[in-house]
Design a protein that fits this description.
The complex is a heterodimer of chains A (429) and B (79). With 429 residues, chain A is an alpha/beta fold. Chain A is 45% helix and 20% strand. Chain A has 11 helices and 13 strands. In chain A, strand 9, helix 7 and strand 10 form a beta-alpha-beta unit. Chain A is rod-shaped and about 230 Å long. Chain B has 79 residues and is of the alpha+beta class. Chain B has 2 helices and 2 strands. A two-stranded antiparallel ribbon of chain B has the order 1-2. Classes of the chains: A alpha/beta (429), B alpha+beta (79). At the A-B interface, helix 4, strand 7, helix 5, helix 9 and helix 10 of A face helix 1, helix 2, strand 1 and strand 2 of B.
């Protein structure tokens, strides 16, 4: 160890390093990627700038941070301008950033894209949020510069289409510092005034920087928060502003906005006249309808009655038949009826049979008659019966004094034998 | 014009005419809405006839209130 060696304290050394570095890099542009971005409650932002092989701490103090138009986020490729500073207490080198710009896109463009993405994610551009414009606004609010070309264009168009309308101009700056806040306030004022049916917000054409106010969040919020529909009319046919995305309807120019909002008076008058005519035509209609219905009902009633009656009759017949089939009385009656029928058939057939029998009998009797011994009595013969009942065929069967009975064809004779002869004088056969 | 806005008046009038044209309404209801329709048509017409050009500009007072004042505007001559 040599006595002439110079020993510095840590403070001395870091101080020297600090002086050297800070003298050497008072103003430098650095390109890198943001990582570990952290916005402190104090408003200061801390992050790391890095590339593939190295990293550098960076700080963005509150006053500078406010001027950054876009949102510095991790992974964003940026150009940072500032001074190198050595933070003695920790021996750290950091870049105190004065300006921060996105690499590639312009800061405004990046801010636009970032806000657009954020508001879209919030749903502020959703079609479902879009309101219909009133078809016949009575009072139209216009948020724009009262001295610009835009208001002239709009008043001219409205005057031509429908002069007798109430227009309220809500004056505001449309470009430059504070324009966004003024535009937002103008929209809020029109809402506060009330009785406004639709709001047009816009300005004439210009460069993208001129239109910047319409890309600011305050304007977007004011449009989204409006109670009445808002038509954006930022005079730029090609590019859309954030205001265009949030508005209920986007018109490419102020004149076009006026045309979208105000109909031709003549068209309104015509539409009303047409409605009146239809109303008057339809006046007679309820009565006509009623008459027609009465007529129809009458016809149906008649038809129905006829149908009913014949139907009833049919049903009654069916019922009676069914009843007859089921009713015991009716069954007895019908059985009796059948019985009577059978009876008469029986009688008839019996009678026929009897007749046949009778005629047969008559024939038989006739034949019998011809054979009967009694039949000969008709020819004058008679039969003699003894008291014993036997027919007397020979004289010897009786003797004088016997009583006999003589049977004639008609009646009989009681007689007494006076004499008997074995042989008489009649000729012998 | 009643409390109804012109827009609402016309919409209601259209609705009434549509209903009447469709029929199927009880007679009493038909008459009621027909009368309403006639009234609406009349007030719409009156509104159109009575409408007058009025251009105003908003002004904020010190208290932060908003009021409308007449705005004079002469159309520029078309070139």
């Amino acid at each position: 160890m040599s006595a002439d060696r110079k020993v510095l304290t840590v403070s001395e050394l870091t101080e020297r390093i600090g002086e050297v570095l800070e003298d050497r890099f008072p103003a430098v542009w650095v390109e890198g990627e943001i990582s570990n971005f952290y916005l402190h409650g104090s408003g200061h932002a801390y992050f790391t700038l890095k590339d593939a092989d190295a990293q550098l701490r960076a700080v963005l103090f509150r006053t500078r941070m406010r001027r950054v138009k876009f949102e510095p986020t991790d992974g964003l490729h940026v150009l940072a301008f500032g001074a190198i500073e050595v933070y003695r207490q920790r021996g750290e080198i950091s870049l105190v950033v004065e300006l921060l710009e996105p690499k590639g896109l312009g800061a405004l463009q990046l801010a636009f894209e970032q806000l657009k993405t954020r508001l879209a994610a919030e749903g502020l551009f959703d079609q479902a949020r879009k309101r219909e414009l009133p078809r016949f606004p009575r009072r139209i609010g216009i948020a724009t510069s009262p001295t610009g070309a835009a208001i002239q264009d709009m008043l001219r168009v409205i005057g031509r289409r429908f002069g007798e309308l109430n227009i309220v101009i809500s004056p505001c700056k449309v470009q430059g510092d504070g324009a966004a806040e003024e535009i937002a306030q103008a929209i809020r004022d029109l809402n506060a005034l009330g009785d406004v049916d639709v709001i047009i917000v816009g300005r004439g054409g210009g460069s993208i920087e001129d239109l910047a106010a319409f890309n600011e969040e305050v304007v977007a919020r004011a449009i989204a928060g409006s109670k009445v529909p808002v038509v954006s009319a930022v005079g730029h046919e090609v590019d859309f502003t954030i205001a265009d995305f949030v508005a209920d309807l986007r018109a490419p120019t102020p004149s076009a906005a006026a045309e979208l909002v105000v109909r031709e008076k003549q068209a309104v008058v015509d539409a009303l006249a047409q409605l009146r005519a239809r109303l008057e035509r339809s006046a007679a209609r309820p009565l006509r309808d009623l008459e027609r219905r009465v007529d129809e009902l009458t016809v149906r009633l008649r038809r129905g009655l006829r149908g009913e009656v014949s139907h009833a009759r049919h049903r009654a017949a069916l019922a009676i038949r069914a009843l007859r089939a089921a009713d015991p009385v009716a069954r007895v009656r019908s059985d009796r009826h059948r019985l009577e029928g059978l009876e008469s058939r029986l009688i008839a057939s019996f009678t026929r049979r009897c007749d046949r029998a009778r005629s047969g009998l008559r024939a038989a009797v006739a034949r019998l008659d011809s054979l009967s011994p009694l039949a000969v009595l008709g020819r004058g013969y008679s039969l003699t019966r003894a008291r014993t009942g036997e027919f007397v065929r020979r004289a010897s069967q009786v003797k004088a004094g016997d009583d006999v009975q003589v049977l004639l064809q008609q009646g009989s004779l009681d007689a007494r034998v006076t004499a008997t002869r074995e042989q008489d004088d009649r000729p012998q056969v | 014009m009643t409390d109804l806005k012109f827009e609402d008046c016309l919409a209601r009038l259209e609705q009434i005419v549509g209903k009447l044209e469709a029929g199927n309404l009880p007679l009493e209801e038909s008459l009621t809405i027909f009368e309403e329709g006639v009234g609406l048509a009349r007030s719409c017409s009156r509104y159109l006839e009575d409408a007058e050009k009025r251009i105003e500009v908003l002004a904020r007072d010190d208290a932060g209130g908003v009021s409308a004042r007449p705005f004079t505007w002469e159309p520029e001559k078309d070139a």
